Amino acid sequence: MGVLRKPDAEAFSAFAAARSGSLFRFAYLVVGDYQLAQDLVQESLTKTYLAWPRLREVNNAEAYTRRVIVTTSISWRRRRSFGERPAETLPDPGVADPTALLPEDDQLWAAVRGLPPRQRTAVVLRYCEDLSEAQTAEMMGCSVGTVKRQVSVALGKLRLVVGPRFILPNVDEEAVSS
Q1: What sign does the dihedral 110-111-116-117 (CA atoms) show?
Q2: Topology of the domain covering 1-79
Q3: CATH 1.10.10.10 fits 105-178, yes or no
Q4: What is the C-alpha separation between 44 and 76, in angstroms, rounded?
Q5: Would you call 168 helix, strand, or coil by DSSP?
Q6: Which pLDDT tens digit goes with each residue over 71-89?
Q7: Which of 82, 94, 49 is closest to 68 using CA atoms?
Q8: Crossing angle of helices 61-78 and 133-140, rounded to 10°
Q9: What is the pLDDT of residue 8?
Q10: In the chain, what are the domain boundaries?
């Protein structure tokens, strides 16, 4: 793959600058780890850059990049080394934690991070990114039924950890409990 023509490179640079914050937030919610989210955004933007000349609608570049984030995170999870972590925490006194900008309910987010990867991805796509079940299924590369099951099981687990005060808007309680 070659270098993009100047107008294409400028359009991609403008897209990356404008949407990288939103893409990072999405990646962080999908993987639950700050450094992995940074790597994931970087890799997804690289893949988007390479695909830029083939994108039919540049307006759909963000949707394409989000899809790349989901598929790349799934392929990373399949790697044998994905669960390996060299250290639990590393001291970095000079940098504030940017994840402090995320919602403050530590117990809820700890529970979300504790979900299996596909369940966490389904919950993030449905409730943080406000996608429909069909859109979530398309992003995850699975059926709508699988999305419904993943979300149902995940919400059940979250309710066990966080308690009955955990109620998401637009969730049919009877459908989730069945």
Answers
A1: negative
A2: Rna Polymerase Sigma Factor; Chain: A (1.10.1740)
A3: yes
A4: 12
A5: coil
A6: 998 887 776 555 555 666 7
A7: 49
A8: 60
A9: 80
A10: 1-79, 105-178
